[in-house]
Amino acid sequence: MRPSVVILGAGFAGHTAALHLSEWVKESADVTVVSPRNRFTWFPSLIWVGTGTMPEDEVYFELAPVYEKIGVKYVDGRATVIDTAKRIVTVESETGTTTVSYDFLINATGPYLNFQATPGLGPQHDTTRSVCSVEHAVDARDHYLEIVKDLKAGKKRRLIVGVGHPAATCEGAAFEYLMNVDADLRRRGLRENAELVWLTNEHDPGDFGVDGIEAKKNGRVVTGAAMVRMLLDEAGIKTVLGAGVTKVEGETLTYAQVGADPKSLQYDFAMLIPQFRGIPLRYIDGEANDITEKMTMPNGFMRVDADYEAKPYESYRAADWPALYRSPLFDNIYAAGIAFAPPHPMSKGWKSNDGVPIVAMAPRTGMASGIMGRTVAANIRDQLEGKPPAHHARMSEMPAACIASMGKSLWNGSAASILMIPVARDFEKYPEYGRDLSLCDLDVGLGGAWTKRMLHSVFMWKLQAKPGWQMIPE
Amino acid sequence: MQRFWRGFVPYQLWRFIVVNAKMFMIAKGLVGPKHT
């Protein structure tokens, strides 16, 4: 009987792993993807759906036909229990409960959108909006267009964009949404009546949860902080930095702020990214004991080969970050993408006057997730060939490219182009900044808008396994 | 960067080529720390 590789989740990490495994091990193993809703979503473009500048059906495609084409089995459902002794995953779906056997397992389940961590936050309370899923982005668009109507009628409106929890991540996506709202309102000639507020848990603008960005330009070092500050100033956007929303009631949000007492702010429209947690999954051992606490961190993300010893910011090391993304308890279980538990944030943590910890958590999305997906696929290929896993991609050695849209138009749009090598700083290798600034890049302009649009098309091609997809890197 | 350069098409075309070439090289692992 052929060995079975089961992938839970079909986002950037899981789907990338499935694509590579379909090529690498198709002669020797069966590959199965378990994911609910039969859909791959290109998340970077949801900010355009949320401003009504891209139809929602352009940001996703059906997974089943792609998997049929590449010879991967697809199970439309949500994994709930992993029996680590019998090597069985329990899957819940609309049609009932089934089980899937595995020899190797990849947990690439992505984030659980933890709106509950901030009382009153989120579309389910009809208070704030989100762009973390297609449905949320459509909801954000509909409410945003209502605000546009009000602005057209000459009413003044306050729009708050940012993150909805003191320890949220994905500040970059929120920043893109903010700048696209600004660009859209200017295009409509409605910006004067709109007060835009950027509310973020970053201590400095442009931190983006990666401890800031720098690049060398014409012999001098430019910083993301200076660039983002300039962009916000130019656009006339008010900023609330080092802030974490703790409660939303009606159209008033309360937030903690670094070195300050709790404050409140009223809004007419708010798009706030919630805190992320690990997708709820129960792990059991051979005697049916629940071992979830051993397999995951308190935030629900899966423990892998990272150094989870608590330490202060000054003691963070490149080697803290996982290399293989493999469970320390089971050598046949991996986690990739948002599902793995980072050892600590990359950015420094702060506190409000009443002791609320405020920190921009580390993003693990997009390019980083794709690289992790390929890495775990390569390690499973090694193990299937009877070799020890030899592929590594610590976040302190992998690059990341981020194109932050600030207007979708290919004529007068704009985007910030950010290249970081590596993502997590490595001060042993690069003593001055922890990164190779000669390779890092930081730029803003129309060319970025072209790149952002091009990446949408190129990756939608690649991820549908269309001819030549293998030539497109993660 | 001054606003003029951000929308000046010849300069942005050049930057588009440079950024994408860099992005391709780092994604392929041709430059930077070795991974995978």
Radius of gyration of chain B: 13 Å
Q: Percent range for helical residues of chain B?
A: 55-70%
Which structural class matches the secondary elements of chain B? mainly alpha
Please state the overall shape of chain A, judged from the principal axes of the Cα atoms: globular
- End-to-end Cα distance of chain A, whole Å, is 32 Å
Average pLDDT, all residues of chain A = 96
SSE order of chain B, one letter for each helix or strand: HH
**Category by helix and strand content of chain A:** alpha/beta
Count of individual beta strands of chain A: 27
Low-confidence stretches of chain B: none
- Mean pLDDT of chain B, to the nearest integer, reads 87
| Main beta sheet of chain A | 5 strands, parallel
Structure keywords:
heterodimer; A: 474 residues; alpha/beta; 4-stranded mixed β-sheet; 9 helices; 27 strands; B: 2 helices; elongated
Explain this structure.
Chain A has nine helices and 27 strands. Chain A has 474 residues and is an alpha/beta fold. In chain A, a hairpin with a 5-residue loop joins strand 17 and strand 18. Chain A is globular. Chain B is mostly helical and 36 residues long. In chain B, 69% of the residues lie in helices and 0% in strands. Chain B has helices at 3-7, 9-28. The longest helix of chain B is centred in the middle third of the chain and has 20 residues, at 9-28. The mean pLDDT of chain B is 87.
